[in-house]
Design brief:
single chain, mainly alpha, 434 Repressor (Amino-terminal Domain)
Amino acid sequence: MTIRPIKSENDYQQALDRLDEIFDAKAGTPESDEADILGLLIDEYEKKHFPIDAPDPIEAIKIRMEELHLKQVDIVKEFGGKSRVSEMLSRKRKLTLDMIRYLTKRLNLSASLLIRDYQIVK
């Protein structure tokens, strides 16, 4: 097992190829340990070189509602009506502080994500 830091695109590709070879190694074997370490190195390289931006607040709400199998009707009461929920999810209305507080608890989303600025559709 020879493991080196991933410093270039070539190193990255070699690490991916090696991980592909040993991915299904039996737990407790040297190959399994190597796969664990390569996975961590690859993950760090990808975070640094291929960052993924967090979604805007409305997209994050939609994603989490889908994950929790929630429909718009499930949050109507707390938002003050169907039209208000619809306007918020269609980006016609900004989130209010009360909405953010509720969504933080109900959907387990961070307030820092929900207070990010986003475009309103006119």
